[in-house]
Amino acid sequence: MKHSKSKNPLIFLTLAQLLKMEHLAQGFSFLSRKQKVRSILGGKHASKLRGRGLDFEEVRNYVPGDDIRNIDWKVTARTQKTHSKVFSEEKEKPALIIVDQSKSMFFGSQKKMKSVVAGELAALAAFRVLKEGDRVGGIVFGDEAVDVVYPKRDRKNILRFLETIVKRNNLLDQTNPVSFESTLAETFAKVRNIVSHDFLIVIISDFHRYSPEVVKHIAYMSRHNDVILAKVYDPMEQEIPKVNMITSDEGRQLKLDGRNKKIRSRFFTGFEEDFQKFEAQMKKYRVPLFKIDTIIDIDTQLKDILMKPRA
Fold first, then answer.
1. Residues 123, 21 contacting (CB under 8 angstroms)
2. Which letter does DSSP use for residue 179 in this model?
3. Domain ranges, ordered by start, for the chain
């Protein structure tokens, strides 16, 4: 029986579903000036994230010619000397959101597919950046094509980006997986044609293989831009069920005893060690990395990650 993709938003995305993310795009920011010092985007990770507009820099002695509107009356009263607040004008921070809609994302064990969560996160990020007043565009990469929507300060442009995500997402049950590294290489080549410097680049993927090539591309982008990575994962990729099961990669099958404590422990440890190694590599390039699961509402997770102080 032929299924209707639009009837199950947990498996396939719809444009209406992504447009609903607009009213949730509040209460968080990707800009460092709105972050707590110890948030994931605070401190050394976000020292380059300038945001845009006027940013407070310091208080100094008043100099003839200073705008009297910038006089700090509290400091002036305390020191009995006139002091002025100094502000610096920050550059525009256009954003490019790169979202993975390849075959490895077409998986979900309990609630949503990773591909659905990635699309929702991309929509949420796009609407948030637009509300901050910056240009935003995106790249959607799948197994058969890489689509580009150039950054504009325009809600219609976001609509085109979301339509592109939905198009790629709705083809996931028809495509065949290809080399993750080769797809990323094509994607990053397109990134270099768009991005010069002072961009905010958000990459949303399961990063299911942390190859040296992936690290090299990310490191290159981070030289003159601010890169943030969001790893979308399903709980079953971290912890297998306590049952006997058969797994398959469409070519081979493997019997797996999920009741075996050693197997469960090695499975969990392997996931965590791989992630921590990748995270450590990204820290060398001051690139923040966080995880998003397929169970909890995306806006709840994002606000918790971006606004909550790090331990």
1. yes
2. -
3. 5-35+97-306, 53-90
